[in-house]
Amino acid sequence: MLQGLGVGRHPPKGEVTADRPRDLVLALADDPGVRERCAAVRSDVAGEGGAARAADLIEAELPGPSAAGDVRA
Q: How far is CA 33 from its chain centroid?
């Protein structure tokens, strides 16, 4: 998904070495296009209500307390 958004890379399994993740992160950090796309994604997320909205959507899907008054800790 991150690769599809242009803000991450997913190397093929056979190409992963001990240094590969570091190299990928450094390449992403140095890429001005990635910075621009990150800013756009950040703006989109904020426009949708950000983390607070995400939490509300998740909590809305969780089961509530039972009729007997059980409360989950």
A: 18
Dist CA 54 CA 46 (whole Å): 10
* Amino acid of residue 9: R
Secondary structure E strands in 4-73? none
d(CA 64, CA 71): 8
**What CA–CA distance (Å, rounded) separates 25 from 35?**
12
Each residue of 21-44: pLDDT tens digit? 899 999 999 999 999 999 999 898
Contact 2, 38 (CB under 8 A): no
